[in-house]
UniProtKB/TrEMBL annotation:
GO annotation, biological process: cell division; cell wall organization; peptidoglycan biosynthetic process; regulation of cell shape; UDP-N-acetylgalactosamine biosynthetic process
Binding of phosphoenolpyruvate, residues: 20-21
Keyword Transit peptide: no
Pfam families linked to this entry: EPSP_synthase
Organism field: Candidatus Bipolaricaulis anaerobius
Subcellular localization, as worded in the UniProt entry: Cytoplasm
Official protein name in the record: UDP-N-acetylglucosamine 1-carboxyvinyltransferase
Residues reported to bind UDP-N-acetyl-alpha-D-glucosamine: 90, 119-123, 301, 323
Keyword Endoplasmic reticulum (UniProt): no
Function, in words: Cell wall formation. Adds enolpyruvyl to UDP-N-acetylglucosamine.
Amino acid sequence: MIGIEGGRPLRGTVRAAGAKNAALPAVMASLLTTEPVVLENVPHLLDVDAAVALAQAVGKEVTWQDSVILLRGGDELAPEAPAELVQRMRASFLALGPILARTGESRMPLPGGCAIGPRPVDLHLVGLRQLGATFDVRGGMVHAHAPRLRGTTVYLDYPSVGATEQLLLAGALAHGTTTVVNPAREPEVVDLGWLLSAMGAEVTWHEDRVTVWGQRTLGGATHRVIPDRIEAGTYLLAGAITRGEVTVEGARPDHLDALLAKLSEAGARVETNGDRITVGVEGRPEAVNVQTLPYPGFPTDLQPPLIAFLATARGRSTARETVFASRFNYVGALAQMGAQVQVSGDTVLTDGVETLHGAEVEATDIRAGAALILAALAADERTAIRGEMHIARGYADLPAKLRGLGAEVWATG
Ligand code: UD1
């Protein structure tokens, strides 16, 4: 349980952690080689633990020191990942392509992950099939075979982050070049491209496509994971909802353009300077309208925290979710805290109220948890948030980081 005594303006500076969503595919990239892969700036999170456990389970030796992970060995990769790990975290499914490319076969349970609507992997499989893989899906398991993958051009119906990463990973060891048309362009996908290039499979981006130049074998690399834009955005919103002023350092302001534009539109003071972003809010912000989209559009992962912020704005905000179906399962908990929020189809309508109130609420996924934390920081009483395991999947040292900004937060149990 996380307890928060709300109503204190947050002030100060917090350092951005490495990006969870860049670290996870980077760990999977290490499966492509037997040479050492060193990943720096890796956040300490349950999801990264799960990715590391998967790498170990299929044959890698892994050592962690502070925020650096060394992955090596794995001359003989096991073709099957433990079901429990893949079902716990959807990104584990990214091991399918690398293991298939290395060993010619791979068996992977269909993935789990956050409870945010249907999250199929059809685009992953359609793409890998075009590289020459054959599949047999039975009993919730995908059995994949491919003697040697062959590069080709794959058109994605939707710029899926996971499918683009899966195809870049598999294409890195395919014969010839693999081009993904209509790829995801999230900074975390681009970061994976940098790592694969450093390992020897050059990744080049063009206006509407990305190409990876497949190699017979790949080398090791040392790679620094980009800062977590979603974590950084969450702390900026924490400052904003409490009418304080928070600076995030070690961030990439250019990765947060969509959020910073919305915060400015709402009346917040936004300043960027090198790797530092400062957001301050005095008084009630104005309502804004937003819709989530693939990058560089507004990120779906910041939709719940932004709604929490808008819950105390002046006027009606509308937020349309176009990336995930039913990513509104936190709305009931926000309403319990006094927010005037209602879901209408794929849109949340938020009529800002003056004050939110403490309550006992439950986080159902990572970003729902972030929304409730923000609401609790602004609420006029004490809030107890259950489901803290979800929050620990995505936010390293959250209670300590919030305390560093002046919040009264404690974690129990
Ligand atoms: C990644 C992020 C997640 C973020 C999301 C969108 C990781 C570990 N997670 O998730 O935090 O919210 O990008 O920015 O990086 N889809 C299909 N078929 C597929 C694949 C996806 O229909 O084969 C759909 C999904 O159901 C969803 C949409 O495409 O509606 C976006 O999914 P995708 O971009 O693949 O997100 P993830 O990689 O799962």
